[in-house]
Amino acid sequence: MKKLRRLSVIMLLVCSVFMTGCDASQIVEVIGKIAQGVQQAMPAIKNVVDTFSNIFGNDNNNNNNNAAVNNANNNNQQNTEANNNSQANVVTVDPNAEDVTGNTGNNANKSTESVEEIIRGAQIAVPYGQVGTENTTAAAAQIKAKYGITMLDGKSWKDEWNSATADKWTQQQLAQFAAIMEKLPAGFRGCTKGFAMQKDLRDNDGNEAGGLGGDPIMISSKAVVEEGWTSMASLVVHEMTHQVQAKQPDVLRQWAAKFWPNGKLAKSSITDYGNTDAGEDMAECVAEYFTNPEKMRQHDPERYDFIKNNIWK
């Protein structure tokens, strides 16, 4: 052990002599590395390192402080550039308002959102002229006059979260939409003021969306065509339910308190997508209540009664 200590001291002195041409911080760094290897056998070396560190520590601290200031300045510049880029977006539809209906690949990746985040997402609105032009056919005019809902032929657009390719309502689609409105209760229907038809809705990772909540609601014609992944009725009612959440937020709060206590799903929703959060749970169940009420009742009588007494009026 004594021989090892003597050898360590000699190595330390030799390194110090040969490093005299280097600056103080480099000497301290080399000594520190040597000390780490023999620290258990030679505690005295640590004392030598501490002595050197105290002498030259001020220089290192100054260098570290300068580096920290430079890093902070770089971060501020990057944040400023990011903010400027985000302000250049065309539509700025919040991702909280997104509904990727029928795309099971996205369901697993969708994080559970708080009730207040869901409500804020559903309340997002953009100028109608920015995402579509009003359809002026007789069928669209009749829908507007009777139900107060403006039918928009979509415009192509892109923002930092989503994009859309323009499409137009067909006469058949307008007739389907009018038939759905006729069956809805006035209080539920009155929460929605605009619908835009798009050919393709996608998030910026390329995933297809069936609908995009907010005001106006946007739906994908690809989702509701014969070979699509959902029906017009299911998609329309699902998205309209998000507007109920926007206009009557206490309804969603009550739903979450009953079926998502402490943010945890108490009992499985009617679909896998409904299991992602309280907002999608409510939208999926209301859509099922409309398209297949008996299935909804058998699956969950409590949710069925909640919809009947609190939403479907």
Give me some keywords for this one:
313 residues; alpha+beta; Collagenase (Catalytic Domain); 2 domains; eight-stranded mixed β-sheet; 8 strands; 58% helix; globular
Mean pLDDT: 77
Classified by CATH, the class of the largest domain is Alpha Beta
Strand content: 5-15%
Shape, please?
globular
Descriptive account of the structure:
- The chain is 58% helix and 11% strand.
- It has 313 residues and is an alpha+beta fold.
- It folds into two domains: 2-85, no CATH class; 95-311, Collagenase (Catalytic Domain).
- Strands 1, 2, 3, 4, 5, 6, 7 and 8 form an eight-stranded mixed sheet that branches.
- β4 and β5 form a beta hairpin.
- α5 packs across α11 and α7 (138-147) runs parallel beside α8 (171-183).
- The longest helix is centred in the first third of the chain and has 44 residues, at 43-86.
- The protein starts with a helix and ends with a helix.
- The relative contact order is 0.10.
What is the element layout, followed by pairings?
Elements: H1 2-18, H2 24-38, H3 43-86, E1 98-99, H4 104-107, H5 115-122, H6 128-131, E2 132-134, H7 138-147, E3 150-154, E4 157-158, E5 162-166, H8 171-183, H9 186-189, E6 194-203, E7 211-212, E8 217-220, H10 221-224, H11 232-247, H12 249-259, H13 278-291, H14 293-299, H15 301-311
Parallel strand pairs: 3-6, 6-8
Antiparallel strand pairs: 1-7, 2-3, 4-5, 5-6, 7-8
Task: Kindly summarize this structure in a few lines.
It is built from 15 helices and eight strands.
